[in-house]
Design brief:
Two copies of one chain form a homodimer. Chain A is mainly alpha-helical and about 210 residues long. Chain A folds into two domains: about 20-60, Orthogonal Bundle (Arc Repressor Mutant, subunit A), CATH 1.10.10; about 70-210, Tetracycline Repressor, domain 2. Chain A has helices at about 20-40, 40-50, 50-60, 60-80, 90-105, 110-120, 125-150, 160-175, 175-185, 190-210. Chain A starts with 17 loop residues before the first helix and ends with a helix. The first copy, chain A, binds a DNA duplex (30 and 30 nucleotides) through α3.
Chain lengths: ~210, ~210
DNA sequence: CGAAAAGTTGACTAAATAGACAGCTATTGA
DNA sequence: TCAATAGCTGTCTATTTAGTCAACTTTTCG
């Protein structure tokens, strides 16, 4: 451990070494798998291959580290949330969103699992982060769905439940991977399986909502 | 704590007092919320209102207790799994199954969450329990779907993904309750919300699969 | 009844854990 | 070059935790 990176003018707490990223990455893996209380600083240190004391150099304490990991994760979510506002036709909007969500599950399974663990535990550390934007996003999408229904572009299905169904179905492929592996008797969920999943979900959601 | 129950002929480890159920119930709540490692025997003891040492009278150790809780939970799942073999028409079969799954989410949210936590953690303690029956059940349903497709009773959608979609959508209402509460800005998920969810899921899945 | 077993518990122990801290090395910028 | 600071780490400590144990109370059944 003797890697350093270029550093700008001295501003305490601004620019940090690579170790910080190693720690965040290892912490995400551990927290996603064992939750906040179930994760030990020692295990994170071992996974990141840094001494435990080094973690406490970059993060005030365990909760601080967890908060940093959560924040990283939520920024990733936001990117997917906002990636769908260009199109107008329900079929295009939902298709893109489902594709983006499935792709997120494939490329960021740990982030998805961390989020899921938080939710299942009652979101004890999450409320502070989302509250504001989250509801706004949800309400806006709800009203878009309602206008589509009014225009006869889709069936009169409760918009909230459609959104929940999309979230549930797409996140499932990251969060419940073992269940998929056991059921399908395979070792890994292939990229093709993710693509197939996206196709099936799109078919069922679009046709099921009477779109197009 | 001085309640006892009627006991049969003396067979060590056969018939146990009410405390055992209290402990199992408290343990389910704690494990479902904090996972295996994140749960302490002390907290379970407090929740069950028994001394910690009493837990170790009924259960060999923490893992033994967790195993007992898991087994209880999986027995509940099995009941739902097998509750759908009477009907023949896809619409009836899927409707009943979705209703049963949503009802399970409503009445046994903790069991659902415990199961979800296990899956997200990589199912470290679960493999031993299901493996056998689980795949069989899955394969049987898959072939039923395939025969429906062959008979033109439903669209050619990959059966596995349909099942995953039903599992994901129905379990979501138990596992991700906080996400629902935040999104819909409510305090609790009402029974009516569960019924609405079931209706929406049934509508989308059935129509989406081209059934009836 | 009364001995034996079931059921219960407070007090203890060994291990694990979060975090503190003093001292070390490497890098910076004047 | 060199002092100041960033970056790093071995060691220690107070606390929490799983699990033990011996002693206690209640129930069973001959």
């Amino acid at each position: 451990m003797s890697k350093k990176i270029a550093r700008g003018p001295y501003k305490p707490g601004r620019i940090r070494a690579q170790s910080r990223d190693l720690i965040l990455q290892a912490a995400l893996a551990e927290f996603a798998c064992h939750g906040f209380r179930g994760t030990t600083m020692q295990r994170i240190a071992e996974a990141a291959q840094v001494p435990k004391a080094n973690i406490h150099y970059y993060f005030s304490n365990k909760l601080g580290l967890y908060g940093a990991v959560l924040e990283n994760t939520l920024n990733l979510w936001d990117a997917v949330f906002n990636e769908i506002s260009d199109h107008d036709e329900p079929a295009d909007v939902l298709s893109s969103y489902i594709d983006a969500k499935i792709e997120f599950s494939r490329t960021h399974p740990k982030a998805s699992r961390l989020f899921a663990k938080e939710m299942i535990s009652g979101a004890p550390h999450l409320s502070a982060y989302l509250q504001q934007d989250y509801r706004l996003w949800f309400k806006q999408r709800m009203s878009i769905f309602e206008s589509w229904i009014a225009q006869g572009k889709m069936d009169n299905v409760a918009p909230a439940h459609v959104i929940f169904m999309i979230w549930a179905s797409t996140q499932y492929y990251a969060d419940f991977e073992p269940q998929i592996l056991i059921a399908t008797d395979t070792k890994t969920v292939s990229e093709q399986a993710f693509l197939d999943a996206a196709e099936s979900i799109k078919h069922i959601i679009l046709k099921g909502c009477g779109i197009r």
